[in-house]
Amino acid sequence: MKGNKHIVRFGVSMEDELLEKFDKLIHQKGYTNRSEAIRDLIREKLIEQAIEKDKVCFGVFSFVYDHNVRELEEKLTDFQHENFNLITSTMHIHIDKDHCLEVIIMKGKASELKKLTDKVLSFRGVKNGNLVLTSV
Ligand code: NI
């Protein structure tokens, strides 16, 4: 049936030394069992692969900029209007008198989202930022 998920159990063999390191790592990360940790590792790899294959994914792009740079705010707004097809949502936070933080949620091919991010980071007055890509 469509949408029905079956749980399959399988055994994994590895050197005790490697398993000890793995247990230590997942304990630090807060996992209470190995199965969930292994599932998350696999998901992480699949997302990495989807990004490499340039599939449609979601991007969370956050950056800080100087509020006092002339016309930057207008430039950023124009740029987002030009790319409305890739931008889902924008959040703006006034950090202090001089700085703003903007968080842009995007949906599109990984390469398109990276290109958009690089363009914004090249604007004068945009100080630092980073893009996190994810997928289901
Ligand atoms: Ni602001």
Q: What kind of assembly state do the chains in view correspond to?
A: single chain
Shape: elongated
Name of the top-level CATH class of the largest domain: Alpha Beta
The percent range for strand residues is: 25-35%
- The amount of helix comes to 40-55%
| Number of DSSP strand runs | 4
CATH architecture tag of the largest domain: 2-Layer Sandwich
Any idea what the radius of gyration is?
A: 20 Å
Residue stretches low in confidence (pLDDT < 50, at least 5 long) are none
Class inferred from helices and paired strands:
alpha+beta
Task: Tell me the number of structural domains.
Answer: 2
**Distance between the first and last residues' Cα:** 20 Å
How do the strands line up in the largest sheet? Answer: 2-3-1-4
Q: What is the overall number of helices? A: 4
Question: Would you kindly provide a brief summary of this structure?
Answer:
This protein has two domains: 16-52, Arc Repressor Mutant; 56-134, Alpha-Beta Plaits. A hairpin with a 4-residue loop joins β2 and β3.
